[in-house]
Write a structure and sequence with these properties.
Helix 1 packs parallel to helix 3. Strands 1-2 form a two-stranded parallel sheet. It is built from 3 helices and 2 strands; from the N terminus they run H-E-H-H-E. The longest helix has 22 residues.
Length: 82
């Protein structure tokens, strides 16, 4: 789960930022989850990995903010029909 939800984001950022530096512009949207913001019962690895996505996105955004690159994370929520 960490490989898919966190390591993959880190690897993508590595190459996306390299390309954005060459271009001088760009935007990245990483996909997290509401579970990464508030937690979720019975499966702590999932919210932990999604919280990591939020953290790495925030840290990277701060690192490249001076260059005016856009980095953000979306946190979709699953609604169940009752």
């Amino acid at each position: 789960m960490i490989n898919v939800n966190l390591r993959s984001i880190w690897l993508c950022l590595k190459y996306e930022i390299e390309q954005m530096l060459k271009q001088g512009k760009g935007a990245i949207v990483n996909t997290s989850s509401a579970a990464g913001l508030v937690g979720a019962p019975s499966n702590p690895a999932y919210p932990a990995s999604k919280h990591g996505v939020v953290g790495i996105t925030k840290s990277t955004a701060l690192e490249f903010a001076e260059k005016a690159y856009e980095l953000t994370a979306s946190a979709p929520v699953l609604f169940e029909r009752v």
